[in-house]
């Protein structure tokens, strides 16, 4: 059974269809893997094993992923009747009222929903160390962070508990954990996946649902299963030419690819691990026949971006705290929040509605300045997935807020601008540092071009198969 657990989700689904293993046996094996390994890693914060097993007989017989176990990030991806804490102590055991559209589509696709994964409180930082549930540890080295906010999902997949887990990305929260845990993590185009029915958008459009996986084909197939506009959604992503799985063997052609190794913030020196990862990836892409040259959008270095991005996120957090108080029947007090979030809510309360609109209008202009680089004839941008090398737990301190905010901004400097523009981007596990820790690189495409990202990522994976040394 260990051999089946080592397959990716597409491979597991085929094993079930071919009768090599039953859906129940596969689910029981995944449950055993969680029970064996999660005590150290602390990736899974809510287990629904008995209910998951009871639901297997009701899965659609012809579903593409029938019987494949999956874990859901405990932020977004609501499941009716199941606890939904979003990494916080202040939910007062509120259960989700209804399934999110993504969860409905996962069920239709035949996935077995095992439970929910750890996340920082409200997803507002880039490491998964919530007070409510404790830190999630990196399977490559338990002293290190698995990243955030999808750290629980990334650790579970990297450790081999499941082949695939849901995630979301508001400032790098798919790509950074994928980088730190040696996984594939694609942030889709804004509007590709629905936040409904409980939400229209996340973080004023910055946040996108997605997945972390071990293979490009899993990412493509999972996105095919859950993507699509739902009535009333505020955005509708540009139509793809067809299923993303059809792009896995498509020739991407000769592409124009720019690459960056210097950190967008001039006060942060280039990290040798990150620079080496990008330089090697650039050489690999060049060997595959692409035109690869230094350079990227000049707007990435605009110092005003971080301030506007942070203000919009803080305003959204403050609104969420108000709605949480209404749902539980009494307001959330600042002392109930972790210090980071209390500070963000306090800052947001000093902002006016006009301040918020002006910040979003600034981002509108920023988006056009970034997009002009692709409109100028470039196809892809290559850069680090994280603005810092793999870091230990505690490196983003919970009490020293100045250091915490500064280091968080450093980490997301390559990712958060792409949340603001709404473009798709994928982190690929192409490098390890001297300590053996994964270091991902990020490819960014123009809005709506997930198809191009899948083509190139599959091309890379074919010549440089990804290693997953942390699987247990």
Can you lay out the helices and strands and say which pair or pack?
Blueprint: H1 2-5, H2 9-17, H3 23-41, E1 44-47, H4 49-55, E2 69-73, H5 101-108, E3 112-117, E4 137-138, E5 141-145, H6 151-158, E6 164-169, H7 175-181, E7 184-187, E8 208-213, H8 216-226, E9 256-259, H9 272-287, E10 291-294, H10 304-328, H11 339-349, H12 353-375, E11 380-384, H13 401-411, H14 416-421, E12 425-432, E13 438-445, H15 450-463
Parallel strand pairs: 2-3, 9-10, 9-11
Antiparallel strand pairs: 1-3, 4-5, 6-8, 7-8, 7-12, 11-13, 12-13
Helix pairs in contact: 10-11, 10-12
Could you walk me through the main structural features you see in this protein, from its secondary elements to its overall organization?
The protein is of the alpha+beta class and 472 residues long. It has one domain: Amidase signature (AS) domain (Amidase signature (AS) enzymes, Alpha-Beta Complex), CATH 3.90.1300.10. Helix 10 packs across helix 11 and helix 10 crosses helix 12. The longest helix has 25 residues.
Terminal residue distance: 13 Å
Mean pLDDT: 97
The radius of gyration is 20 Å
Strand neighbour order, sheet with most strands:
6-8-7-12-13-11-9-10
* Top CATH class: Alpha Beta
Total DSSP helices: 15
Question: Could you describe the largest sheet, including whether it forms a barrel?
Answer: 8 strands, mixed
Helix/strand order? HHHEHEHEEEHEHEEHEHEHHHEHHEEH
The CATH superfamily title = Amidase signature (AS) domain
């Amino acid at each position: 059974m260990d051999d089946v657990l080592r397959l990716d989700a597409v491979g597991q689904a085929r094993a079930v269809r071919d009768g090599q293993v039953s859906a129940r046996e596969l689910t029981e094996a995944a449950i055993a893997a969680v029970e064996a390994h999660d005590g150290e890693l602390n990736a899974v914060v809510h287990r629904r094993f008995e209910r998951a097993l009871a639901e297997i007989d009701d899965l659609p017989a012809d579903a593409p992923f029938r019987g494949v176990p999956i874990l859901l990030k405990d932020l977004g991806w609501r499941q009716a009747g199941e606890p939904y804490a979003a990494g916080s102590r202040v939910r007062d055991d509120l259960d989700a009222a209804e399934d999110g559209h993504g969860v409905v589509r996962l069920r239709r696709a035949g996935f077995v929903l095992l439970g929910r994964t750890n996340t920082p409180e409200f997803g507002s930082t880039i490491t998964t160390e919530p007070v409510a549930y404790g830190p999630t540890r990196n399977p490559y080295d338990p002293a290190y962070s698995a990243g955030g906010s999808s750290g629980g999902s990334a650790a579970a997949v990297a450790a081999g508990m499941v082949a695939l887990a849901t995630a979301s990305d508001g400032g790098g929260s798919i790509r950074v954990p994928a980088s730190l845990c040696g996984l594939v993590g694609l942030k889709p185009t804004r509007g590709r996946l629905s936040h409904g029915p409980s939400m229209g958008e996340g973080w004023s459009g910055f946040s996108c649902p997605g997945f972390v996986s071990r293979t490009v084909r899993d990412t493509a197939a999972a996105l095919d299963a859950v993507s699509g506009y739902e009535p009333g959604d505020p955005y509708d992503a540009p139509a793809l030419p067809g299923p993303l799985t059809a792009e896995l063997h498509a020739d991407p052609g000769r592409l124009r690819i720019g690459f960056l190794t210097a950190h967008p913030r001039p006060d942060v020196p280039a990290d040798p691990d990150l620079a080496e990862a990008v330089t090697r990836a650039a050489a690999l892409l060049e060997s595959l026949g692409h035109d690869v040259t230094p350079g990227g959008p000049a707007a990435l270095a605009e110092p005003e971006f971080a301030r506007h991005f942070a203000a919009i996120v803080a305003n959204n957090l403050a609104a969420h705290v108000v709605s949480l108080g209404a749902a539980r029947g009494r307001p959330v007090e600042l002392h109930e929040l972790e210090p980071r979030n209390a500070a963000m809510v306090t800052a947001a309360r000093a902002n006016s509605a006009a301040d918020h609109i002006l910040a979003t209008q600034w981002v509108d202009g920023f988006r056009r300045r970034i997009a002009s680089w692709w409109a100028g004839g470039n196809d892809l941008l290559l850069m680090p997935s994280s603005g810092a090398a793999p870091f230990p737990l505690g490196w983003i301190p919970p009490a020293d807020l100045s250091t915490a905010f500064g280091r968080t901004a450093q980490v997301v400097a390559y990712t958060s601008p792409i949340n603001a523009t709404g473009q798709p981007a994928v982190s690929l596990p192409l490098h390890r540092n001297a300590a053996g820790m994964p270091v991902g690189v990020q490819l960014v495409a123009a809005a709506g071009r997930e198809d191009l990202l899948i083509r190139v990522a599959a091309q890379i994976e074919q010549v440089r198969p990804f290693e997953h040394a942390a699987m247990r």
